[in-house]
Amino acid sequence: MSLLAKFYTQIKSSQEDIASEGLKYILQNSKVARSYLKSFLFYKTQIEVPELTYSNQITKKDLGRTDISGVNNLGKEVLIIEAKFWASLTENQPISYLKRLEENSILVFICPTLRKKSIFTELKRKLFEENLYLSENKELLTFVTKNNKHILIQSWNEILEPIKNLLKENQDERLVSDVDQIIGFCEVIDKNSFIPLTENDLSPEIGRRINSYYFLIDEVLNELSKNEKYRQDKLTEGKPRYGYGFVKYRKYGDLTFAFGLNYTNWNEFADTPFWIKVTEQDFGQSIEFRNKIYRIAPQLKNQIFETNLGGIYYPIYPTLFEDKEKVVKDMAEQIIEVCEKLQ
Which superkingdom is the protein from (predicted)? Predict the structure, then answer.
């Protein structure tokens, strides 16, 4: 374990800031690292990146603050690198960052391996909402948007390990040690299931927010009750258990569904705590029913997800920065959409 990794729980600064500062330092001080990154980006995007100057935390009005910006000799940003661990995408990511970039440019998100798919899902949703989506590669986890702007999602090891190996070949032991520090720091954050608490994590605002999620479930179900196909009957409430928050079972037409909080899916798949699992009358998902879900999936607004235990779930996204009535109505409409298509 690296020294930086050993003491990571005692570091007060943002983990993303520390990792991005470290990567910027390596790029600023190693021609080998810069050359590797340039060839890597060309391999992924077919964009020939010029020699760049790397800087941290460049702020532009209404367009956010980047972790690392690669600027060409004309002072234009052609590469933005964003460090991510477990925090959600910010309001500016990726839309405002794409606005900052020139044509034929690249936005790279570097994150834990287990986070790559959930970031891919959230990026896709945001690109669709802003009508910027052109194409994707689900295997490589990449997007191409308008004006040939590329978005890549890479793990910390995918970026840092090749740089470390090249530095070893060039016998730059000092920078090898520095890269090892960053790798160790990122690995311990990736693998540590306990994320160190901050004062903000324990504030009353957090408790109030969590409580509001439970109330929101009831509000959405009340909104659904206005639909003639919705029935409560005498279905039991779900009991909280590890990895799950709370669910309520209801009926819609010939279907049953469980709607509520699912912390495991929130952590692994998509940036929302609210999930629905639509089932047949016996609360199961037969092979035939599962095939039906996959057939209607391309018609749905959101992406479906299958867990390791075999259940197929659908994320319900609350509308951001809106009042409760609009949020509740929109969430109810998302549930109705998937249930109607499965009738």
Answer: Bacteria
